[in-house]
Structures are given as C-alpha cells and as structure tokens.
C-alpha cells in the first residue's frame, strides 16, 4: 500500500474512530486519492459513505456528494459533523444557503451534499466554478440507469455537469446493480471499465427462506417465537401494516409498532427511535422504512408480500444481521402478488416494460427455484457461488441433506 493509504489509515482512526477498513474500502479509497474515477458496488451497510468522506478530509477542495433523499442527506450531515468534518447541504430544507455558499467558495468545506435536481441548474454550475472541487461522489448511482430499479431522470443531468469539470474524478456508489446496470452506469457516467470495484455480496449469516403465504399472521408469529430479537416485517400497503401490527402483537404478546408514510410524523419518528433502541421490538412497515437506519442487531426481516425486485429483496433482507450474528430472512408470497405485478407492468410506459418484465422474471426465478436461494441471488449480482450454501430453506430441506442439529443430538446422546 502506498503512502496515501497509510495516511488514510491514520485518518480512519483519528477522524472516524475505526480500527480497520472493511472489505473493499481501501481499494476504493486508494483509487479516489489517486484521482481515478471509480464505480464501487458494495452491499448495504458495507460502508460506502466512508469511501468519499475519508478522501474528502485529505484532498484539497470540496467533495460534492449527490444523494437523492434529503432526509438521508441530513443524517449523513449530522454524522459527518459529529466526526468534525466540515460538511453542508444545499437543499430546499436549508435556510443557510448564503453561509454554505460562502464557506464553499472559501474552500472551507470538505463535503457538500446536493440533490440531483440541482445538477441541471445553471446557477449551480456557476457556483461549482467558483470553488475548488476535489471529487464528485454519486450515491445511489443505479438511479442513472433505466436498467436499474429506481431510474431518476435528474441523474442524467449529472454527466453534462461533471463533464464541465473534466479533471475532477468521479466516484459512483451503489448497493444494487446487476451486471447490465453496472455496465450502463459506467457508460452513463463515463467511468472506465477498469474502475469497477465489486464487493462480495454474500451475507452468509442470513438464512433465506421463501414460502407460500397461507396464513401470514400465523407464519410470521411463528417466526417471532423462534427469533426473540428485533425484527422488521415489510407489508405492501399502509392498511396491511396496521392490520398486521395489531394481529402480531395480539398473537405473540411482543412489542410491535407500525411504520408508514401515513402516520403522524412525530409518531413515525417515535416508533423508529424506539425500534433502534429496542432489543425485542418488531416493526411492521412499508418499504419506506429502513433507508439510512443503522441497527446492527436486527434478527429477522420478513416480507408479507413479494418485494419489487431481487435488488429490493437483497437490500431489504440485508438489514438483518449486520452485526454478523445469525439472522433470518423469510419471504411469504402468493400467486396474486405476481398477478398484481404483471398488471402494474401493463400500466407503465411501453419503453420501460421490457426491463420491468426482466426484473419480475428474475424475482420469479428466485421464488420458484428448487435449488439454493443464495446461489440464485449471488449469480444475479454476477458472482459465481457454490451450488449449495447450506443456509437457506431449499438447502436445509432438500431430501438427502443431513440435519446437522439432529445428527449432533444423536451423537451426543449415543
Ligand atoms: P452503506 O452506505 O454502504 O450502506 P454506510 O456508509 O451507511 O453504509 O455505513 C454503514 C455503517 O458502517 C455506518 O455505521 C458506518 O459508520 C460503519 N462503518 C463504515 N466503515 C467502517 C469501518 N471501516 N469500520 C467500522 N465501521 C464502519
Ligand atoms: Mg449509503
């Protein structure tokens, strides 16, 4: 490792208080410090933010961070400032634009967070011309691709903006991009193929199970009885969230709270805060829940209905077991979920239908496979996994596979 990386390690301790890099962080950071554009594909929780925040504290000039959600930006801002990093946001929710712009022009900011819709504004381009820029970091970079699961047209304005600052390296970050989407991100953002860094996607401590939904309350209550720790249950609608929360609380006697966009903001924030603090709470939520929540000890994630895509499934189940301890992901699905998804595809603009259908087919492949779930997931993300993982329903229930627990019991009692 070069001297830059050694210095980065020092900053890791001093500024962030971490002992060591994780996974591909050092590879990404080394490239960034070297001024080379990079696309880093790293799972949720892998620590993507650090790969631009740390260089931002070392490089001359400001790192401009593009991030799609204002709420997440403000979380990041708080965390960065708590570490003593000079950071600011320019969003509709900020009243201190003047001060931020002055500090930026004076070269006093390490990080400037902006939403993608700023990118197309001439005034923003002018602002960038008036200050030294060290790096463009593009978070949730899959939003630039129509192949991604969350295309946002504003992301297409980033390219012309960044092209106006040709010498500034780009760091694109995403958790969820299949091979097709990755290639598209590289093209769209003009990052060389050699700049692609992919972290391992396997979450070996998560046990995956995908079951037919016959009685979701009973099925999830059973799961709650085997997993006394904190859990997240995803439900498709606000009404189902409320219903399930009530019924699961009644069936299990455990603390259960709802979370969805229709709740009073104070109640919603209170439920989230209580969940983050709790060691046994279950939160029943729409998919609005979880982004930016950093709770390492979630013991299970249950889906009461089909998720939107394999990417969404991976991201949502990935909120379980971030501490590395055993965790479960259980999805319940019904034929009506697929019928509804197909109907929805019929209603989207024609040019999006093919990619939506491809996405649904991939999900159907995961649901219907008699083989290893993990292998299907990892192959989807371009990895070449072993045929069987031994830690999903299909591997554990496959005929002829020894039940290790039973075997151990027999040996012990022999
Ligand atoms: P991502 O954006 O990839 O989902 P984050 O950047 O939000 O992940 O980081 C997830 C968590 O991991 C944060 O709490 C962060 O502080 C922590 N983290 C990041 N890098 C390290 C590290 N090298 N050592 C310990 N914790 C880390
Ligand atoms: Mg992130």
UniProtKB/TrEMBL annotation:
Cofactors needed by this protein, per the record, are: Zn(2+); Mg(2+)
Q: Which GO terms describe its molecular function?
A: 3'-5' DNA helicase activity; ATP binding; DNA binding; four-way junction helicase activity; hydrolase activity; metal ion binding
* Class of this enzyme: isomerase
User: Residue ranges of the Helicase ATP-binding domain?
Assistant: 29-195
Query: Which reaction does this enzyme catalyse, per its entry?
Result: Couples ATP hydrolysis with the unwinding of duplex DNA by translocating in the 3'-5' direction
Query: Which part of the chain is the Helicase C-terminal domain?
Result: 216-364
Keyword list, A-Z:
ATP-binding, DNA damage, DNA recombination, DNA repair, DNA-binding, Helicase, Hydrolase, Isomerase, Metal-binding, Nucleotide-binding, Zinc
Residues making up the signal peptide according to the UniProt record? none
Instruction: Provide the GO biological process annotations.
Output: DNA recombination; DNA repair; DNA replication; SOS response
Output a single Gene Ontology CC term carried by this record. cytoplasm
Judging by the UniProt lineage, the source's domain of life is Bacteria
EC number(s) stated in the UniProt entry for this protein: 5.6.2.4
Task: Please report which protein family the annotation says this sequence is part of.
Answer: Belongs to the helicase family. RecQ subfamily.
Q: What is this protein called?
A: DNA helicase RecQ
Q: What is the lineage of its organism?
A: Bacteria, Pseudomonadati, Pseudomonadota, Alphaproteobacteria, Sphingomonadales
Q: What gene is this protein a product of?
A: recQ
Residues of the whole record sequence present: 9 to 422 of 600
